[in-house]
Write a structure and sequence with these properties.
Length: about 110
């Protein structure tokens, strides 16, 4: 199991920005991928973005493409999700995922 600690959530107005961080206790040995998911109240957890650990290739959900940027720092086993042009519908708890492990989540609230 890998330990994941997320941070950076908060409350912002629509159009604002936030940067989420995820520090892992080790690199993703099994899947070689770090993912971000989110879960809004009353909804299922949904995929947001992923990055391959070695090459840094990225993929995004259509709802965030062009607004969110995922990145990673291999030296510190850290991942980041830069969120810009935030919308009220981005309000959710955001989770970092590595292999089969999940972080505790960080709340993002966007007000109109």
């Amino acid at each position: 199991q890998v330990q994941l600690i997320e941070s950076g959530g908060g409350s912002v107005q629509a159009g604002g920005s936030l940067r989420l961080s995820c520090v892992a206790s080790r690199p993703p040995f099994s899947t070689h991928i770090m993912r971000w998911f989110r879960q809004a109240p009353g909804k299922e957890r949904e995929f947001v973005a992923l990055i391959t650990w070695s090459g840094g290739s990225t993929s995004y959900a259509g709802s965030v493409k062009g607004r969110f940027t995922i990145s990673r720092d291999k030296a510190t086993n850290s991942g980041y999700l830069q969120m810009s042009s935030l919308k009220p519908e981005d309000t959710a708890v955001y989770y970092c995922n590595v292999d089969s492990s999940w972080g505790q989540g960080t709340q993002v609230t966007v007000s109109s």
